[in-house]
Amino acid sequence: MKYPLRIAFLLLCFFVAESMQAKKTKEQLWKELKETPLDSIKVDRYISLSNLYEKDNIDSALWTAREALKLSLKINYTEGLCASNQKIGIVYQNSGKYKEANGYFFTALKYAEQLNSNGYKLQIFNSIANACAYQKMYSQALIYYEKALQSAEESGLKNRTGTILMNMGNIAYSKGYYKKEFKEAIAYFDKALKIGEETLDSNLLSSVYGNYALVYTDAEQFDDALKMVEKGMALAKARGVKEDYVFLYYYAGRAYAHSKQYEKAEYNFKESIKYCLEMEDRDYLSENYLSLAEMYDDIKNYKEAYNFMYKHKVLEDSLLNEETTNQLNELKTVYETEKKEKEIELSHQKLQTQDAKLNTIIFSAIGGALSLLILVFFIYTRYQIKQKANKKLETAYSIIEEKQKDITDSINYAQKIQYAILPSDDDIKNAFTDSFVFFQPRDIVSGDFYWFHSIAGNTQNTLGLEGIHTLIAAADCTGHGVPGALMSMIGSSLLNQIVLEGKVKNTGEILDLLRTGIKAAFKQKQGEDKRRDGMDIGLLAFSNNGTKVFFSGANNGVYHVRNLPSGQTGAELKDIKPDKQPVGQHVGEEKPFTCQEIEVQKGDCLYLYTDGFADQFGGETIPGKQSGGKKFKYAKLKELLAQISTKNMQEQKSILENTFNQWKGKYEQVDDVLIIGVRV
Question: Which of 76, 396, 534, 546 is most buried when burial is the number of CB atoms within 10 A of its CB?
Fold first, then answer.
């Protein structure tokens, strides 16, 4: 099974024009467009045509939406400007051009605010959130889904509230996929289901049942998954909607395959394929082929496994080539359309200035014809040149796309490996009941990592540290992305090796041995100036009874927060400094790492951190002026931690995450972010 199944983030129905024209054909709309004298009505018809064309002709969908935009600009029609900008954004989004799509979405949002229309804001926020979700920018997606949810609730649009909640559930599913944490996703689906049952929204209910089946299967709750498929099947049968059978049979096949009921899985996958072919749904057809290939591989039927894997690969390649061709044809269509419009305008101007005399008309016609012939010859020549260039571009683009996909797939798999070596939330919670880990990588894989070791349940101290029960660390490796991730795996492995050998007496010696291991791994020698590979790290060690805590740090310190005595408000924060040297080769004298004892009381909070949060650029903005672009800084981070230290750790994590994303705003994340909080 590939990283998570293609999730469909539902679009909200377009209010203006579409609600009135939804049942009309393209021919009817073109006729009305030609006959109406009102430009505002023409804008609405262009939008409705774009909605219809979007299903089968992306070029025409883009052209009609742009015509709506041009006409709206001409007559200064604010509602049309809002609708057409959003429509163009949706077409680009469905073509995978998210950057271009967001430009149009934010322009549409500007007009929606002028109109003070919650309906438009709802659609636009949802569209922006979908674009973020498709790019796996999950935190940003949730911010805009929250805005869409607020607009829907203010407008009293309960069924659209359900759609947004389901989309938020899909985000939670994607975030929790690798760690198999689906409680948040199911909570969102529960809310969406309740709204679907109250509003009798069969489309929403059908989608929710399918998503339940997907999540329950991945959570290995196979009976629950199949119950949801049965509910979806009953609803689809009552509605007479064959499209639902495509994904319902597929989800049933997944549940049976994961529970090793292979005959039932095979039947359901093949039923889904039958409806995929009838409905021309090639995305789910590809998923069915892949799932059958994996199933046959599990039962060692390698001939059939190869057969269906081949079908999957051929279909995936055709989908990729078709997408590339559509994008190139779209550019060609826009170019040729603009040329033809200029020719038509030129012809009209000539007709208006013709003399009444027949000789002048004939002379002008001949001159115009000659000019037109020359123009046609020029356009045809340019077209031939452009066609040759397009063929070369198609070939190059196809190769680049294939290579990019291979690289992305490899990095996604590396992410899976990296998450596997990180400590589980349950292990940390067992040692520290009230704790959190806020971990937000900049890229798919991270140069920051956290490490944990405990002898819980053992009577012998295998750490080799006298009286020490648990160790936890936050580290920031040289670089981020793939290079940083490789360094993080080396660092985690070395830390495990050091503590399991049991030869160290304190946390400082752990960092000394870690430095020795990294220098050996990268063949670093003192005095050489070739590589500066290494890491900054903060390491805490807790005694058996929790009364003693020891700290060692390489450039990364720890914050110790204690609430003031009863009768006084606020909290006292101590910034415990690290040794000013990294773990690894560096310029200057290499000294042994020190071990500091921290005097703690019950209820004290300790925070390990890396530099990603404090170094993030962002800030508030005001209309017409960008006033952000400054770092968050450590002083503000310390102030924030002192303010929230009385809350439970999960609340603190939510506040930190929201604060970070709001501060970042439209700015790019500059580094990996990691903060660990523990209450003694």
Answer: 534
